[in-house]
Amino acid sequence: MARWNTTERERLLAKIEKQDDGCWIWTGCLRGTKTHRYGCMRYRGKSEGAHRASYMEFIGEIPEGLNVLHSCDNPKCVNPEHLFVGTDHDNMKDMAAKGRHFYPLAETHHRAKLKNDEVRAIRASVQSHNQLARAYGVTKRTIINVRQRKVYASVT
Predict the structure, then answer these.
(1) Is-contact 19 31, C-beta < 8 A?
(2) pLDDT above 70 covers what percent of the chain?
(3) What is the CA radius of gyration of the chain?
(4) Span 6-97 CATH architecture
(5) Which residue has the higher pLDDT, 106 or 12?
(6) Fewest CB within 10 A of the end CB: N or C in the chain?
(7) Picking from 48-52, 66-70, 100-104, 132-136, which range would have the lowest pLDDT averaged per residue?
(8) Residue 4 clears pLDDT 60, i.e. is over it
(9) Where are the domains of the chain?
């Protein structure tokens, strides 16, 4: 169960701003990337994510190996009603289901070696893997992966 430490709970509640949508926005220190800033605070003697501290304070301990996820998709939110635990895989599934993550496809990916038209030509070609690899300046393994749709799967 939650450890009832009034001082920590008061510190946590002092740094939130309640919004009409139900989110409790953390107004204290933030860490993370420019687009995904999470609250941070000292909690139980160590630096902790504010959403994790809120979960522990109001709901209970976080099981080993699990993360605290946001149903509201707002990284600054610490409302315990918007928080749930899950694995990294759960987080990725939730993100994909809500359309929050952009996966650059085929030639738009920053590491793409081939253009979409080249991928189509490789798949249609009767030339050997080695011949195509030399022609396109990639490895034989890349050609095999293209043909097996292990890479550039979005190219039809």
Answers:
(1) no
(2) 90
(3) 23
(4) Alpha-Beta Complex (3.90)
(5) 12
(6) N
(7) 100-104
(8) no
(9) 6-97, 106-147
